[in-house]
Specification:
- Helix content is about 45%, strand content about 15%.
- It has about 325 residues and is an alpha/beta fold.
- Strands 4, 5, 6, 7, 8, 9 and 10 form a seven-stranded mixed sheet that branches. The protein has a three-stranded parallel sheet with strand order 2-1-3, with helices on both faces.
- α6 links the parallel β5 and β6.
- It is globular.
- It binds (2S)-2-hydroxybutanedioic acid (LMR).
- The site of (2S)-2-hydroxybutanedioic acid has 9 residues, from loops.
């Protein structure tokens, strides 16, 4: 009997020693993005890391890679399908290889303001677009705001004729290319990480960006004129791969989903704040002048760029464009 007791005691002791060694390694979630940490997306990613690690200590390890440290936006989705990264939030302009429908967000002067963009994203059609990548193995987990885009250049851009012959860096979107071609500009698709150097060396004349990107990447230091055009939107879709999501353990997945939802809500608050504070910081800076447009000047840009809607209607879908336009009406 004594021998059995000793045997049981030593087995228990051994098991206690081995247990910590055999405990499963934490699930790694790599979140790759291209902007600075002090931006809506940068802060959203860090909030996600904080929430998940607080709620799932030792079970999930989130690693955030900002500033294109891990992947550029042109590589990140392929990497995600290969399992090399688990979360990303590319701009809605970066998905055209996977679906044409999301290009609705690139149509110039379609949305009156970021509130209209928000209403569209929350509408049935907007929610349906979150599933538009599923056939390609990707899942849209939610939209994240950055903000409305402003034009910037080495010379003042007040009317469309001012853009003629100028080289503009654009994201990888055919609609954005067509938008600048409509005003006689020369669009160049280039990675975000190259924009500052392209501007600094004058390889390009101008670009388009929301206030937080212009500020955090110091584009305002190398662009003497910024026109407050609000001509389009730069927002994001937070994405993961279907395979990774399905493979998460049942007790982990809802916690990750809840943390993501809360981090996105937080990121959207930051976007509102940054739009105001980064715009003001740029206005206050002696490095660049912020120009506004009169209604008549703005109307010239609208008339020059709006034909792009018809040009891409067959790709984006009339139903999608109409739903986006309807979101300009405030619900009473
Ligand atoms: C860009 O390439 O200009 C943007 O997509 C960068 C970003 O993520 O805001």
């Amino acid at each position: 009997m004594k021998m059995i007791k000793t045997l049981i005691a030593s087995t228990v002791a051994c098991a206690a020693l081995i247990a910590p060694m055999t405990q499963a390694a934490p699930i790694e979630i790599k979140f790759s993005h291209v902007v600075a940490e002090n931006t809506p997306k940068g802060k959203m990613a860090l909030k996600f890391e904080e929430l998940v690690e607080q709620r799932l200590p030792g079970k999930v390890d989130v690693k955030v890679y900002p500033n294109s440290q891990l992947f550029s936006d042109s590589k990140v989705l392929e990497a995600m399908l290969l399992g090399d990264v688990q979360l990303a939030a590319p701009s809605l302009s970066k998905f055209q290889k996977y679906t044409k429908k999301l290009q609705v967000f690139d149509l110039p002067f379609l949305f009156n303001d970021i509130e209209a963009v928000d209403r569209f994203q929350k509408s049935d059609k907007g929610q349906e677009l979150l599933t538009s990548l599923e056939k390609k193995g990707l899942m849209g987990m939610g939209y994240l705001h950055n903000g409305m885009k402003q034009l910037s250049a080495y010379s003042p851009l007040k009317v469309p004729a001012d853009a003629k012959g100028k080289k503009f860096r654009i994201q990888t979107s055919d609609i954005l290319a067509a938008q600048f071609e409509q005003v006689g500009g020369i669009p160049l698709k280039k990675p975000f990480s190259e924009v500052f150097t392209l501007l600094q060396t004058r390889a390009i004349d101008g670009t388009e960006n929301p206030w937080s990107n212009i500020y955090s990447k110091k584009f305002f230091e190398v662009q003497p004129y910024i026109t407050e055009s609000n001509h389009g939107v730069l927002d994001y879709m937070v994405v993961t791969s279907k395979e990774f999501w399905a493979g998460l353990p049942e007790d982990i997945r809802p916690v990750v989903a809840k943390s993501l939802k809360e981090a996105i809500a937080y990121g959207n608050e930051v976007a509102g704040e940054k739009t105001r504070s980064d715009r003001q910081a740029i206005i206050d800076s002696p490095r660049s002048e912020v120009l506004s447009m009169t209604d008549a000047e703005r109307q010239q840009w609208v008339e020059a760029m709006k034909p792009v809607w018809k040009q891409f209607e067959h790709e984006v879908g009339k139903d999608v464009i109409d739903a986006a336009l309807a979101s300009n009406q405030k619900k009473s």
